[in-house]
Structure formats: structure tokens, C-alpha cells
């Protein structure tokens, strides 16, 4: 891959949030704290689920997968940013940038699919409770996760291969804290039409499709809950999906916020700041959302800390 002046691309420059040197320690401390909380919180969720036989159910199987993906999702971008701040550098190698694009898209789409699968699980549990164990059998659960992985890998691979076909000139500055696909496409000096078309097609299919599935599942769930005669029964049914609904709302609202803010302002730094919400803040908050209002999860976490079986 060669830029316009005939020299080989060695690296891109990630401009990040601010060039003010006085703000760098603050940004470093803030993101390091959020990253450590994200990794510790999500790994604790996985450990609690693995160690408690009562949590070996489809819902918690999907939750453990979501927690692992959240750790990987955040680890794709934040560690590199922290290293750059510590080294007082903005550089990322060409290979590193392509790798970051690949894994960021992979885990972002996988997050999306897992939330959809979890919505389907809640739909079956509430709308078809008598057939739940038959429908959500272990083999189906594994298949759903495997299909999510395969689609995510193929989608991410297609974007990465298309980026490899692009040529870049002298302006190799990316106004973001990581190699975000759209920003990389914008600084290319060759034809980006195939990249743009595939990007929008994939976003429409892999974002709107799962979102439609989630909305359909919850429309049926709400109808089923409304048909329950007792208030206690309604509360019990809704409490089983309240955490998932909170995470879904947080994930999709922040993603849509990034899209609309970038469309409205065309300010790259504003887009980078908004991207923090779904790429860093949401994975950090997920363990708290799933544990604080969940008695089973709280009990499992207490047993992990106490060392009792």
C-alpha cells in the first residue's frame, strides 16, 4: 500500500481528544480507571456464573459471553490510547490500525447480536414459559452464539479487506482516539465508494435487523406481561428482563447518539467524545446493571468474594 508521494505507509496519527499537555494526565487517569473497572467487573460476572451451578442457565450463559465480549471490545481501543499518552506519542502502525478496525467491528457487532439473542431468550421465557427448557436447550444456545460469531467475523473481515485496498496520501491524521472505520475511509485519497456502500449496507442490516428483533421480542413480552392478572406476577415477569432492557437502551441510545452527533455537527472531536459512551462507558456499566438488581447474581458474587461454595 503506497501513498501519493510513493513512500510506503508506516503509521497513522491518532489525534485523540485534546492536544493540551496539561489534560493528558487527567485523560490517562480517567480512562485507566474506567478500563480497570470494566475488566474487573465483567470478569467477576463470568467467574460468578462459572462458579455457581444455579446460574448455569441460557440467560446467564449469554450474559457470560456478553461480559467476555465487552472486555475484548474495550481492550481493542483503550490500552493503545493509554500507551500513546504515556509515551507522549500519537502514532499507530498501519498494521495496528487495520487490526484495530477488524477487532473493533468484530466485537461491536458481536455485542449487538448477543443482546438480540438475550432478548429472544427473555421472549421465550415470558411468552412460552412451559416450553422454555425445550426451546432454549444447550445445543440451541451454543448455535446462537456460534452463528453470531461467524456473522461478526465475516462482516469484520470484509471491511478490513476493503480498507487494505485503499491508498492514502500525505494527510494521515485520524481525529479520533482509535482507528474508527469511517474516519479512516475519509482520509483515503483513492475511490472509497465500495467501502462506503458496504459500510452503510452492513450498518443497516446488522444494526437495524437486530434492533427490529429486539423491539419485536419486547412488544410480545409487554403484551404477555399486560395479560398477567396480578400486580405481583407482572412485577416478577418484568424484573427478569429489566436489566437486559436497561443495557439494550444504553447501547442503542449511545450508538444512535454518535450517529446523529456526527451527522449534525461534522465535528470529529465531538464524535470521538460521543464514541466513548458506547465503546467504554457502556461495557463498564453492564456488570453493575446486571448485578445490582439481580439477587441470584448478587448471591453468586458474595460467594466468590467470601470463598464459600
Assess the beta-strand content as a share of residues: under 5%
The average pLDDT is 88
Quickly count the helices: 11
Helix residue percentage: over 70%
Structural class: mainly alpha
Report how far the terminal alpha carbons are from each other.
56 Å
Sheet with the most strands?
A: 3 strands, mixed
- Count the beta strands: 3
The radius of gyration over CA amounts to 21 Å
The general outline is globular
Q: List the strand order in the largest sheet.
A: 2-1-3
Would you identify the regions where 5 or more consecutive residues have pLDDT less than 50? 1-7
How do the helices and strands follow one another from N- to C-terminus? EHHHEHHHEHHHHH
Please tell me about this protein's structure.
The protein is mainly α and 309 residues long. It contains eleven helices and three strands, in the order βαααβαααβααααα. The protein has helices at 24-51, 58-75, 78-87, 94-127, 132-135, 138-164, 181-186, 193-227, 231-265, 268-292, 295-306, and strands at 11-14, 91-93, 173-174. The longest helix has 35 residues, at 193-227. The model is unreliable at 1-7 (pLDDT under 50).
Attribute tags:
309 residues, mainly alpha, 3 strands, 3% strand, globular, disordered N terminus
Short description:
With 309 residues, the protein is mostly helical. Helices cover 76% and strands 3% of the residues.
Layout of helices and strands, plus pairs?
Blueprint: E1 11-14, H1 24-51, H2 58-75, H3 78-87, E2 91-93, H4 94-127, H5 132-135, H6 138-164, E3 173-174, H7 181-186, H8 193-227, H9 231-265, H10 268-292, H11 295-306
Parallel strand pairs: 1-3
Antiparallel strand pairs: 1-2
Helix pairs in contact: 1-2, 1-3, 1-10, 1-11, 2-4, 2-10, 4-6, 4-8, 4-9, 6-8, 8-9, 9-10
Amino acid at each position: 500500500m503506497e501513498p501519493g508521494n510513493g513512500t510506503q505507509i508506516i503509521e497513522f496519527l491518532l489525534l485523540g481528544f485534546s492536544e493540551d499537555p496539561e489534560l493528558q494526565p487527567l485523560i490517562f487517569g480517567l480512562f485507566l480507571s474506567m478500563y480497570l473497572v470494566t475488566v474487573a467487573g465483567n470478569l467477576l460476572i463470568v467467574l460468578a456464573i462459572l462458579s455457581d451451578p444455579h446460574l448455569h442457565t441460557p440467560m446467564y450463559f449469554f450474559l457470560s459471553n456478553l461480559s467476555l465480549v465487552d472486555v475484548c471490545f474495550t481492550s481493542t481501543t483503550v490500552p493503545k490510547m493509554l500507551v500513546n499518552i504515556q509515551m507522549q506519542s500519537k502514532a499507530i502502525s498501519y498494521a495496528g490500525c487495520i487490526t484495530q478496525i477488524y477487532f473493533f467491528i468484530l466485537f461491536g457487532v458481536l455485542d449487538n447480536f448477543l443482546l438480540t439473542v438475550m432478548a429472544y431468550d427473555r421472549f421465550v421465557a415470558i411468552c412460552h414459559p412451559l416450553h422454555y427448557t425445550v426451546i432454549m436447550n444447550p445445543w440451541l444456545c451454543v448455535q446462537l452464539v456460534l452463528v453470531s460469531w461467524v456473522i461478526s467475523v465475516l462482516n469484520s473481515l470484509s471491511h478490513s479487506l476493503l480498507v487494505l485496498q485503499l491508498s492514502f496520501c500525505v494527510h494521515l491524521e485520524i481525529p479520533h482516539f482509535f482507528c474508527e472505520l469511517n474516519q479512516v475511509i475519509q482520509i483515503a485519497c483513492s475511490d472509497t465508494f465500495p467501502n462506503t456502500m458496504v459500510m452503510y449496507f452492513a450498518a443497516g442490516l446488522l444494526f437495524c435487523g437486530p434492533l427490529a428483533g429486539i423491539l419485536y421480542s419486547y412488544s410480545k413480552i409487554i403484551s404477555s406481561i399486560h395479560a398477567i392478572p396480578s400486580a405481583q406476577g407482572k412485577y416478577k415477569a418484568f424484573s427478569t428482563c429489566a436489566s437486559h432492557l436497561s443495557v439494550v437502551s444504553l447501547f442503542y441510545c449511545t450508538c444512535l447518539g454518535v450517529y446523529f452527533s456526527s451527522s449534525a455537527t461534522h465535528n470529529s472531536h465531538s464524535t470521538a467524545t460521543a464514541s466513548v459512551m458506547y465503546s467504554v462507558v457502556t461495557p463498564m456499566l453492564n456488570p453493575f446493571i446486571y448485578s445490582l438488581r439481580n439477587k441470584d447474581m448478587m448471591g453468586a458474587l458474595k460467594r466468590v468474594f467470601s470463598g464459600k461454595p
